[in-house]
Amino acid sequence: MRVVVADDVMLTREGIVRLLRDAEIDVVAQAENADELLRHVQLARPDAAIVDIRMPPTHTDEGLVAAQRIRRDHPAVGVLVLSQNVEPSYALRRIADGETVVDPTIVSRLLGRGRRDDPLAALTAREREVLGLLAEGLSNKAIAARLFVTERTVEAHVKQIFLKLRLQTSPDSHRRVLAVLAYLRT
Length: 186
What we know:
By secondary structure, the chain is α/β, with parallel strands linked by helices. The chain folds into 2 domains: about 1-80, 3-Layer(aba) Sandwich (Rossmann fold), CATH 3.40.50.2300; about 90-185, Rossmann fold (3-Layer(aba) Sandwich), CATH 3.40.50. The chain has helices at about 10-20, 35-45, 60-75, 90-95, 105-110, 125-135, 140-145, 150-165, 175-185; strands at about 1-5, 25-30, 50, 80. A 4-stranded parallel β-sheet has the order 2-1-3-4, sandwiched between helices. Helix 6 packs across helix 9.
């Protein structure tokens, strides 16, 4: 596997590169900003890019914008977006509990994209809100607290989301993850 690593913090970037090389992954290029990243992807044609969400010059969403361009211009290149901006102890506790943590910045940025063919059109505004919170990695209990409703109400919304997205129960898949993927693809 050939990978490009992009992070403006040299220590973080070098740490990621070392971990990858220790795992016998070929790091073909390193970048410290989005322009370098895009140039390296164009020239090296890697299998994947690991990208920090916030990079120079504004340290807002340059990495995420670059990741979107890579997905658009080089669809064969996998993209992993990293962020150091999630509260670490909170995120680590959730990960230890088996949850997936997605930075709310990533979710809100993805939500801001225009949608052409929207498979979520059948969802109510509240169901979309619940699905957005699922995409942030919140549990039903956390969603209930955030929306000031009961867990049972959240469960009902989640069930309706699964039904409307036609996500069937299967031992080979996780409907919650599939719902979030459908959400992020639109």
